[in-house]
Design a protein that fits this description.
- Mean pLDDT is about 90; it is low at about 245-265.
- The chain is globular.
- By secondary structure, the chain is α/β, with parallel strands linked by helices.
- Helix 7 (about 135-150) packs parallel to helix 9 and helix 9 (about 170-180) runs parallel beside helix 10.
- It has helices spanning about 10-15, 45-55, 70-75, 80, 85-90, 100-115, 135-150, 165-170, 170-180, 200-215, 230-235, 280-285, 305-325, 330-335, 340-355; strands spanning about 1-5, 20-25, 55-60, 120, 155-165, 185-190, 220, 240, 265-270, 275-280.
- The protein has a domain at about 1-240: Alpha-Beta Barrel (TIM Barrel), CATH 3.20.20.
- The structure holds zinc ion.
- The site of zinc ion has 6 residues, from helix 13.
Amino acid sequence: MYVRPEHDQWSFVEARSRAYDGAIVAAKHLAPYPPGHQSFGKPADRLARAVLAAQRTLVVDPGTPQLSSRAVTRYASAARLRATGGAGVVSLPATPATVVNTVIRDRFVDAVMDDQRLASEVAPPYFEPRSRQDAAHRRNMQMLRRVISVQGVQRPVAFLQVTRARLIAGLVTELARDYAATGVERVYLRVRGGGEQADAAGMRAWLAAVDAFMTLGVELFPDCVGRLGPVLVHAGAAGFSTGTMFFRSAPQALLSRDGGGGGQAVSVESHRGWREVERESAEAAALGPCPMPSCPVGRAADPSLDDLREHRLHTLDRLAREAVVQDTTTLIRSLRASAQPRAGVWADVLAERARRIA
Ligand SMILES: [Zn+2]
């Protein structure tokens, strides 16, 4: 399980490294701080260095779909995104049309690869495709081939971002063959507006995407999926990523404030599985000790926010480890036992799939 740290979580990723296997860091969180920023002049790559110091896998997400939004040229909050190497070599907003020219496109790819120089994997820039015939998809494939042809010791991977509606329409399944044809080994799939809130249609589409990539021998790694992750891992996904507090799922807005979500009520992951409870509720008070012996949740009177964040990570990690070895019937029973409506829907879809495979 990989964590998606916020821009200033370097002490968390270093101190709580036992709770995750790797970290996906947004490239903008490693770009130089712009003048006027409270951290202006401080080392920009602290977050990546913290992941490496913790001896965890570092993945850097180029985050280039955000560059195609008009907002990128306007808002002060996008200043750090504009300061990435990739954003510096193209005119903004950058769209598939911006990189039709081979020389400009290759320069863009190389700059984005350089933004990932500390990572063990390397991904091309990417745009959000609308269809297989779309210019965005064609540019994505050209840029992926460029990465594969020039990459040195880093493992070539790709990020794919689609909307929930297009996932459900089958776009990811349709594109899988093109990705496999490039020789890429792993694809990180992020669905805008559809992570752990996945309903039955969303869940069916996620499972179809996992199946399509798995059949072609490409690892599919769901990105920003929170509690949906363990279920997808059971179905064959290579792993999954989650945020620690905010953005466990993909943010709705293309551009977020640098500080992350904010304003959301703090909740506690129930270690009985598949749901979270309000922090101040009687239910939270009655949770009992977490199965992880060193965890203060259910033991100490007032666990810190970082304790709750770490508890979220190790709970999802434990659910994923259980889900890998469980047979589908046991997993379905565990989802239904949580009495959480979404988990019940996922159980129904898993049961449907099990009947089809049998
Ligand atoms: Zn815990």
